[in-house]
Every structure is written in structure tokens, then in C-alpha cells.
Amino acid sequence: MFLVTRMARQEKINTPIGLRLRTLRGELSRDDFSKLVGVHKNTLGNYERGDRLPEFDFLEKLKAATGVNLDWVISGDGDQKSIDSEFTLVPRLDVSASAGDGAENQLEHTVEMLAFRRDWLRQMGISTKTAHVLTARGDSMDPTIRDGDTLLVDTGIDTVVDEGIYVLLLYGQLFVKRLERQIGGAVVLRSDNPSIRDRIVSHAELPELTVAGRVVWFGRSI
Questions:
Q1: How far is Cα 103 from Cα 154, in angstroms, rounded to an integer?
Q2: For the segment 117-151, what is each residue's pLDDT rounded down to a tens digit?
Q3: What is the pTM for the complete model shown?
Q4: Main-chain phi, psi angles of 139, to 5 degrees
Q5: How far apart, in whole angstroms, are the C-alpha atoms of residue 96 and residue 70?
Q6: How many C-beta atoms surround the C-beta of residue 173 within 10 A?
Q7: How far apart (Å, rounded) are the C-alpha atoms in residues 85 and 106?
Q8: How far is it, in rounded angstroms, from Cα 62 to Cα 82?
């Protein structure tokens, strides 16, 4: 009996389920992923290390939050995702990029995963590793981008590559604006709302400006 119990405990500790959970989590922190699937980060850590086997309630939450194929999680059989393989899941962060006077909300916790077509992301030149979804706040980019619009942002772009729309940090505040480089190094922050004046970031102020990504798509409810 002792030998059987010991063997069962050893099999439990060496289970590859934990490795597959770690693969599924990817680049998300354990804290963010645990919030996404609705479990304590210590519980998730126990599952990933193989100290405990996942409970059914956790597996249901995991599938609902990520679209993962539970057969793959449990046994390694089949594809990782249970949703159509033509789609990939992109994290939506609890960050509001201000299209107004600036937002101080810089938290970057994942609140849900949204599905996008893999081939469309490739055509747009976006890596699934750098694609993130944010929410626009304010009216300075109206009528192009309106308050509450969903923004797909390529966070792999950290410099001004064209006169596009970017998410940026300036003096610790988060904005979504059109950016234009001027001769001499200054950067112009332009708003599509004609009632909002341009903001010029001088060469001396550039250390306070960080490009967080380029907006490549936006959507809204009607």
C-alpha cells in the first residue's frame, strides 16, 4: 500500500499537465493569468509545478477564458486551442488610452482574450506576441476614434515609423494621438478633433515621451 501511494504521488508530481499550463500561459505573468482564469496565483503555481492536479472547476474556467482544448491540457492529445485554428487569442488589457487630456491608468492586467484571424494579423504585419487590445477614452480623436472604441495595438512598434495613430506615454500619462516627427527631433501630437490644438513635444522633452505601440485597427459597438 505504501509503494502504491508513493508511486501515485510521484506520478502526480511528474505530470506534464503543469508544463502544458505553463505553455498556455505564455508571456503573461502568473499573477495576470491567474486573474484571467479566476484562481489564486498560488493555486496556479501548484498546478504548473505539478504539486496538485487541476480540479474540474478550474478546467472549466480555463476553457472559458482561453478557448483551450481540455483534451490537450489533460493528455496532450489534439490541438492546443479548441476554437477554430484560423483564429488566435489576443489579450485585452485593463488600460484606457486617452484620446483627450491623458489617462493615468497604466495597469496592464489582462481582463479577457479576444479572437482575431491569424491570416489577417499576418497581412497587417502584426505578431501575435505583440498584439494587444486597449480601450480609447475621450473625444480628441473624434470622429476617427471615439470614446469607448476598441483599439488593436502593435506594441512591437516603439518608435514613430509613419504619421499614423499611436499609443504613447508622456509625463506618465497615456494618450492615443497621431504622431509626426519634425526636423530637429521634435514630435507633434495631432488630434483629429479640429477643436483640439496640436501638442509639440520639444527635443528636450523627448525623454518623457515613450511610444507604447501603433494602432492598427479599431472597432466600436453600434
A1: 19
A2: 888 998 888 988 889 999 999 999 999 999 999 99
A3: 0.64
A4: -125, 10
A5: 33
A6: 15
A7: 32
A8: 12
